[in-house]
Amino acid sequence: MELQQRINAFSKLGTFISQFSSEKFIKQDNIPHNDLFFEGFKHQIKLAQENNGWFTKTNIVFSLNGWSKLLTNKNLTKWTSSYIFSNKSYKNVAIIMAGNIPLVGFHDFLSVLISGHSVIVKQSSNDKHLLPFLAKYLEHIEPKFKGKITFTEGKLENFDAVIATGSSNTARYFDYYFKNKPSIIRKNRNSVAVLTGNESKEDLENLSEDIFRYYGLGCRNVSKLFVPKDYNFDAFFEAIYKWHPIINEAKYANNYDYNKAVYLMSEFDMLENGFLMIKEDKSFASPIATVFYEYYNDIVSLKNTLEAEAENIQCIVSKELNNTNVAFGETQKPELWDYADNVDTIAFLLK
């Protein structure tokens, strides 16, 4: 299979997914195999919601909308044009996926197949319904993918390289278990925002998307703010208020109540507005319904701090630091060439 064939297949998959990119699913004409797959994928979305209370229809649709926009011939061609796909020695690449947000492992899945390799997928039990169905659609669109996609719930076997995502604890296990294989091992990371006090209301409203989308469960969600001394949080709380209905969702509310009780009993200082707590803390990984903050004295010393903590940070949201930072409201809209942990997955796979 040539690279262009693989690009064409994923582009058609993107067109299929586009039918599910808004709350009201709309069946379109002229989409191959739609009669066979449209109702089936609606059912898989329903099963995904039932299996995982964090996977609301809104969050699943948000993820699908993002992928429908990325999986176009233009985007896929632009992404792959930066590499030389001359390798004809194709391997079996295993992927161990996380399950914190819908289709969180799709980029690795796409990267392995677009590189020409075969993929062996071990999914999280929290996100097991969507990807196998999309893989079946891909095989119908391009039959040459048949035999190149395997899903397993058992022990990984017969693989040449591995991409594994987990917690910092499981990463140590992965490092040991896969020490004799080429690998990408991903650990816990969180995203941060740097505020100066000069942000517009629109900036802060966009920041709320970075905080609350997927309930803050993604590594690209902002879990910590860096703010100047004497920063006034009033404008921040006012701007994020549009997310207040989130407290009506049971799983989020339970976490909010529990974490608030822990903070109060521990006599921690914190500010809260009825659906979000902010607490001064040097850690990066904040609990659900909580955002940590830390004061900084000047931008230069803050840059040094962020560079020293680079292994713990996925994204930096800011207007002030440099052009590698993410714009407010854009953390959950990565491009195909925005790699997790800044590790170029395609370059790894081509080696």
Automatic annotation (TrEMBL):
Q: Which domain of life is it from?
A: Bacteria
Among its keywords, does the record have NADP? yes
One annotated GO molecular function is: acyl-CoA dehydrogenase activity
Nucleotide-binding keyword on record: no
Q: Which UniProt keywords apply?
A: NADP
Q: What processes in GO biological process is this protein linked to?
A: bioluminescence
Q: What InterPro entries is this protein classified in?
A: Ald_DH/histidinol_DH (IPR016161), CoA_reduct_LuxC (IPR008670)
One Pfam match: LuxC
Q: What is this protein called?
A: Acyl-CoA reductase
UniProt source species: Lacinutrix venerupis
Lineage of the species this protein comes from: Bacteria, Pseudomonadati, Bacteroidota, Flavobacteriia, Flavobacteriales
